[in-house]
Every structure is written in structure tokens, then in C-alpha cells.
């Protein structure tokens, strides 16, 4: 039976991670039953690879002795499979000791066995000494000996041993040397010198420099330099965030180090990073990973508490713990204590096994960097899209999010995201401005020079003070009138460059305005537009950008569901109530926003068919939301109110008649009958100023 046959029968269509790994285990059992040594040895290797790179490596560690014994029992296949076996052995050696269940005697035995195998099959001991150094560095006091060597002695022997096919890539080896000089010899100058080829970009790999930046951030953090710690932890996070193929072994420790550091400056962002890692930690049994995660989570909760937060919404995967809440709302103090106890559990287990207090000392060490406060940027230090993406959580930005801006001069108002465009949209009709220099920049882009045109356009918006809202029609008219001289593909790339790669808000909007002329996007571009739409500053332009797509209304509905400020106002304004789902959402959720519900009361009343609903004897749940919609129509709001309705009296009478069908016990909203009284008073005295409810 060939490997393809095993794969097709047992694991071809299974999801990566535990499902696929378990399918491979069943295939191994089938191969063993058939006494198919070649098939079994191939599948053992595949099992360990799957568990190492897509799980937590525990099952790989447990099955490896079985694999090794089977390999040694089949001499006829040893030459063929020794390379696979040695690579699996190396993978195991990388973190098997991170499971506290592995006793010290077994750790010593596995290290010795690896050295013996290297000698037996003529491999260099370079990887043996490297792994030994890392274990002593992180789990044994660096100056103490393990298997007769200190961390420094193992390091020196590693450098003297020759490279071979088991050796790490040069970028990884430099990262290893870098960490040795930081955490064993405490020699920052030497570490920075050795890592120059990596930091210059000449050497890199799948894990370097992201894990390298994280290590440097950790070093600075432990030496009390929060500024530099934040610099490198943020760099590391931004690189890793864009990689979707990272296995849990590298994700857990590096992510945890990064968001622990970030929590001391931006605890809200740290929570967002923690949430990315959280689903992976529910099944992770790697004690070192778990310790790093719970330690970072404890510090994050502590810093949220210092910043004044009391509650947090989390989807905790730890359903067997007493703290677990199905509603997902947690007191931050209680969550902080829970995270501490979990970190202490893993620290105690590892320290007891190792015979020292390395992990407990890490847990008990306190850092005081002063008052917790968010960085005060005047503009994003990275492209706007990337800046927003760092804060997104399931497509939604946290309530406290706002784009960085210059502080207004004394006496000038400070506008929230989307406010300036909202004021123009609803309350002013600005005269269209001339494009001026922008015409030449569009021509430059249309001639194939899109990259320099993007840069010059961004600089133009930084200095001109021009608002894209005021020129949106003009720029589209200009492009359409000059299609004979503008290359459409080049203009499209120009628009993408502005939308995706610039740091200026008006430049991003300008890119979106041009994108509106195109009727098709690839998945990546559409995803970028939807991410920008989550920010109130860009929602309106994203609505326009998707306006020509067949599924435009579905996309606008998503925008409405993932915004709560001016973005929601714009999205509900443009949303067509063409399905019952949308009508129901508009009725129950559409009117509410954190700017003024009066902007949406008319739209929700009309598009949710409230008139017809009032004729069909709505239930109490429906009446309660209708009450709010009518209340906001009566208020002297910013847009169309009840006075603009020719049938206003009939609407109010119909509502009040329906309200008479219910008494106090029927309402679960204590405000309902107060609003009914308010509406009744308005119906009786429409020209009098109404008391505030």
C-alpha cells in the first residue's frame, strides 16, 4: 500500500492539527498491522511533523520512542530513513523538556541518546550542543552544569563543531548566538554586533527576525527599558501578525512575550493580541508555553485594571475552570487572579522538576513603568490599513479606538473619527474644489508611474489641507473624461497603493474614491476595504468603493454591524432593507449609535416597516424597540423627525393603542412606559417643549 493510499484512506481531507495527526495515527496502526515497515516509518515521520508544527508537540514526544524502536528493529530500512529519524529527533529535542511530565532522568537520557545517534550515523554534534545550551539557558541556571557542561561551554563547543545537513539555517544560528549573548552572557553590545546581518535584512527565514525582535524586546523589558522593549516587541508582533502558517510552538512564547510588553503601554492592544492566541491555548499542554501565556495575561489584566477598566468580554476556552462564564463577561480583578494562579501552577511544576526557582522568580518579579497610558501619536507610524488591522477583533474595533491626530489648537473643537465628513454629508453642501496638482499626479500614475505618484499624492495631502470628500466627484469626473490617455490598470494600482500603503487619512480616502470606478476586486483587496470600513473615518468611502459590486448591500450590512459611530450612520443610511434579516436588524439594532440616534431614526422607521408592524399587533419585544425609534423621531434631532411625516398623528395613535395592550409586568425594559408617557404627552401637546426622558 503506497503512502498516497494511506493518506487518501485515513487523513487526506482532515483539517491540519489534531484531526490530521489522529488520522495519521490510524494510518500508522494500519501499516503496522500489514507489517508494512516502509509505510509505517514514512507515517511516523509525518505524524511527528504534523504534531510539531501544527499542535503542541506532546503527542510527537510520546510517540517518538515507539518510532525509534521500530526504526532500530528494521535494519534494512535504516539507511533509507536515518535522515528522517534524525530530523524528527532534532524536532523532539527542541522542546520536549517544556512538558513538566518529562522527568529530569528522561531528559538526560534523551540528550545522551541524541548524541549517540549523531555519532552512530556520522552527524556533527553541533545541533546537540545547541539544544543543550538552550535547555541550560532557559531551564537550568546558566552557570550550573548539565551533563557536565555549562551553557557557555556548550555554546563554545557548538561553534567549534562543523555544520551539516541537520544544522539550522544561518539566520536561525545567528538568532541562537544572539540570544546566548543576551541571556547567558548579558552582553548587549556583542549581541547587537552578531545580529547585524539579520537586522540589515541580509539574512532571514520563516522565524527570523520576528523571534529575534521579540527576544531583544524581552531583554530590554527585563532591564527596565520599556521604550526599547516596546519598539522591538511591536516589530515582532507586526511581522508575525501577517503570517498565518505559524505553528503553536513559536506562536505561544513569542506572542506572549510581545503582548506582555505591549500591555505596559497599550493594554487594550495587548488584549487584542491575547485573543489571537487564546483559542490555541485551550488545548496546549506545553507547560513553558502555558506559563508564558498566563504570565503575560496576568500582566495584561493588571495593566487594564490600572488603566481603570473593570470588566472585559472574552471567549475563554477553559470551560472546566470555575471562573468560566458562558456569557463571556469577566471582572478584570478576578481574571487577573485566575491568570496568576495558572501561571503559578506551571511555574511550580517546572521548577520542582528542574530543582530551581527560575519560573517562580519570573512570576514574582515586579515591573513598575509608571502610569499606564496609550501612546500619543499624531498620525499612524505605519500604513493606516496596517494600523487599523492591529486593533481589529473579529472585524470590529474596540469602543475606545480612535485614529491618532494632532491635538487641536486651544479653542478649536476635537472631532471624532468620521465627524468632519459626516457634518459635510448631512449638514453642509461644500462647493466642489479644483483638483489642481492632483490632476498631474493622476496623469503620472496613469502613465505607468504609480509608485512615485502614490508617494507624491500622500505628501500633497499632508500639506494641502484638502479633504477628499470635497473633491470626490471631481476626481472621478476627471478620470472618466481622460480614459483615452490614462492606463486603467496603472490607475487601479495607484488607487490600491494609496488605499493600502499610505499613512495619511485623506490619501487613503482618495484611493478609495478612485477604486469606486472599478467594479471588481480580488479577495485581498476586498478584505482590505472591509478592514478600513470598520473605522468610522473610512466607512463612507468604503461604502462607495463597493457600491458597484453585486453583493454591495451584503457588504454594507456587514459594515453596519461592525461599526457604532459615524460609520454605522453612513452604513445604515445606504443599506437597502431587501431581506427580512436586514429589516429585523434595523428594527432591533439599527437606530443605536454613539453619535446621535436621531441620525438613523427615520431610516430605521421606514426601512424596518414600522408602520406596517404597528398594524399587526407587535409583541412587547418589538414594542420596546419601536418606542425608542419613535422617541428619537420626536426629539429635535439632526435629520428628519416626526413632524415631517404627514401621517404623524396616525403613527403615534397606533403606537399608543398598542402600548395599552401591555402592563408593567410585561416590559423587561424599565424605560418603556416612561417613553410611552413621553410619546403620549407629545401627542397631546405637540408644540410644547418636551421634558427630557
Main pleated sheet: 2 strands, antiparallel
Computed over alpha carbons, the radius of gyration is 31 Å
Report strand %. Answer: under 5%
User: Which strand order do you get reading across the main beta sheet?
Assistant: 1-2
Total helical elements: 35
Q: Give me the secondary-structure category.
A: mainly alpha
Number of strands: 2
Low-confidence runs of at least 5 consecutive residues: 245-249
User: pLDDT average, as an integer?
Assistant: 92
The span between the termini is 77 Å
Shape call? globular
Portion in helices: 55-70%
Oligomerization:
single chain
Written description of the protein model:
This protein is mainly α. Among the domains are: 418-570, no CATH class; 577-693. It has helices spanning 3-10, 18-33, 37-54, 58-73, 78-95, 104-120, 126-139, 151-160, 170-183, 188-194, 196-199, 210-222, 226-241, 248-262, 267-281, 287-306, 332-354, 358-364, 384-389, 419-427, 437-446, 450-464, 472-481, 488-501, 505-515, 523-533, 539-545, 552-561, 566-574, 580-590, 598-607, 610-615, 620-634, 648-659, 672-684; strands spanning 311-313, 329-331. The chain has a two-stranded antiparallel sheet with strand order 1-2.
Amino acid at each position: 500500500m503506497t503512502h498516497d493510499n494511506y493518506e487518501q484512506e485515513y487523513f487526506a481531507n482532515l483539517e491540519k492539527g489534531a484531526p490530521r495527526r489522529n488520522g495519521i495515527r490510524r494510518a500508522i496502526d494500519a501499516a503496522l498491522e500489514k507489517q508494512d515497515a516502509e509505510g509505517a516509518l514514512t507515517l511516523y515521520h509525518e505524524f511527528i511533523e504534523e504534531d510539531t508544527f501544527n499542535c503542541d508537540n506532546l503527542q510527537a514526544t510520546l510517540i517518538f520512542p515507539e518510532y525509534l524502536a521500530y526504526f532500530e528493529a528494521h535494519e534494512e530500512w535504516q539507511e533509507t530513513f536515518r535522515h528522517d529519524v534524525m530530523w524528527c529527533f532534532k524536532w523532539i529535542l527542541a522542546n520536549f523538556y517544556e512538558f513538566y511530565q518529562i522527568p529530569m532522568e528522561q531528559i538526560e537520557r534523551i540528550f545522551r541518546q541524541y548524541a549517540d545517534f549523531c555519532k552512530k550515523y556520522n552527524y556533527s554534534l553541533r545541533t546537540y550542543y545547541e539544544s543543550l545550551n538552550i535547555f541550560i539557558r532557559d531551564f537550568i541556571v546558566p552557570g550550573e552544569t548539565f551533563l557536565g557542561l555549562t551553557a557557555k561551554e556548550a555554546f563554545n563547543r557548538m561553534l567549534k563543531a562543523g555544520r551539516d545537513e541537520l544544522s539550522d539555517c544561518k539566520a536561525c544560528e545567528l538568532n541562537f548566538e544572539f540570544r546566548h549573548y543576551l541571556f547567558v552572557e548579558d552582553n548587549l553590545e556583542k549581541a547587537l554586533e552578531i545580529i547585524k546581518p539579520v537586522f540589515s535584512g541580509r539574512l532571514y527565514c520563516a522565524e527570523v527576525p520576528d523571534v529575534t525582535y521579540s527576544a531583544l524586546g524581552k531583554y530590554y523589558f527585563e532591564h527596565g527599558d520599556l521604550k526599547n522593549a516596546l519598539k522591538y516587541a511591536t516589530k515582532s508582533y507586526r511581522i508575525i501578525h501577517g503570517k498565518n502558517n505559524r505553528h503553536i510552538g513559536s506562536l505561544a512564547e513569542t506572542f506572549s512575550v510581545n503582548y506582555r510588553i505591549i500591555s505596559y503601554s497599550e493594554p487594550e492592544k495587548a488584549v487584542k493580541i491575547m485573543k489571537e492566541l487564546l483559542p490555541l491555548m485551550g488545548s496546549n499542554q506545553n507547560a513553558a508555553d502555558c506559563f508564558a501565556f498566563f504570565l503575560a495575561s496576568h500582566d495584561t489584566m493588571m495593566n487594564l485594571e490600572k488603566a481603570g477598566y473593570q470588566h472585559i468580554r472574552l471567549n475563554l476556552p477553559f470551560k472546566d475552570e470555575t471562573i468560566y462564564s458562558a456569557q463571556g463577561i469577566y471582572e478584570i480583578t478576578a481574571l487577573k487572579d485566575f491568570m496568576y494562579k495558572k501561571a503559578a501552577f506551571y511555574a511550580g511544576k517546572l521548577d520542582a522538576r528542574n530543582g530551581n526557582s527560575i519560573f517562580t522568580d519570573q512570576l514574582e518579579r515586579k515591573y513598575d513603568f509608571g502610569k499606564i497610558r496609550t501612546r500619543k501619536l499624531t498620525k499612524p507610524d505605519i500604513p493606516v490599513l496596517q494600523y487599523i488591522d492591529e486593533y481589529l477583533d473579529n472585524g470590529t474595533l474596540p469602543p475606545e479606538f480612535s485614529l491618532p491626530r494632532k491635538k487641536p489648537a486651544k479653542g478649536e473643537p476635537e472631532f471624532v473619527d468620521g465627524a468632519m465628513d459626516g457634518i459635510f454629508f448631512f449638514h453642509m453642501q461644500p462647493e466642489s474644489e479644483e483638483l489642481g496638482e492632483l490632476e498631474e499626479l493622476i496623469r503620472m500614475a496613469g502613465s505607468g508611474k504609480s509608485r512615485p505618484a502614490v508617494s507624491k499624492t500622500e505628501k500633497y495631502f499632508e500639506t494641502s489641507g484638502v479633504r477628499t470628500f470635497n473633491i470626490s466627484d471631481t476626481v472621478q469626473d476627471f478620470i472618466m473624461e481622460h480614459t483615452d490617455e490614462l492606463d486603467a490598470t496603472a490607475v487601479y494600482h495607484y488607487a490600491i497603493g494609496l488605499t493600502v500603503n499610505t499613512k495619511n487619512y485623506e490619501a487613503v480616502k482618495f484611493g478609495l474614491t478612485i477604486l469606486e470606478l472599478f467594479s471588481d476586486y480580488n479577495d485581498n483587496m476586498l478584505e482590505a476595504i472591509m478592514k478600513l470600513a470598520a473605522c468610522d473615518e473610512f466607512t463612507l468611502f468604503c461604502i462607495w468603493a463597493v457600491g458597484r459590486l453585486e453583493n454591495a448591500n451584503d457588504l454594507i450590512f456587514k459594515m453596519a454591524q461592525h461599526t457604532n459611530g459615524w460609520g454605522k450612520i453612513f452604513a445604515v443610511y445606504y443599506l437597502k432593507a431587501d431581506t427580512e434579516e436586514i429589516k429585523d436588524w434595523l428594527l432591533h439594532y439599527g437606530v443605536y449609535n454613539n453619535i446621535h440616534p436621531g441620525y438613523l431614526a427615520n431610516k430605521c422607521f421606514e426601512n424596518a416597516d414600522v408602520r406596517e408592524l404597528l398594524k399587526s399587533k407587535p409583541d412587547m419585544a418589538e414594542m420596546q424597540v419601536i418606542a425608542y425609534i419613535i422617541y428619537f423621531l420626536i426629539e429635535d434631532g439632526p435629520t428628519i423627525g416626526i413632524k415631517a411625516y404627514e401621517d404623524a398623528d396616525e403613527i403615534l395613535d397606533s403606537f399608543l393603542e398598542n402600548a395599552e395592550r401591555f402592563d408593567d409586568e410585561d416590559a423587561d425594559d424599565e424605560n418603556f412606559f416612561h417613553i410611552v408617557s413621553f410619546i403620549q404627552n407629545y401627542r397631546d401637546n405637540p408644540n410644547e417643549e418636551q421634558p427630557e426622558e
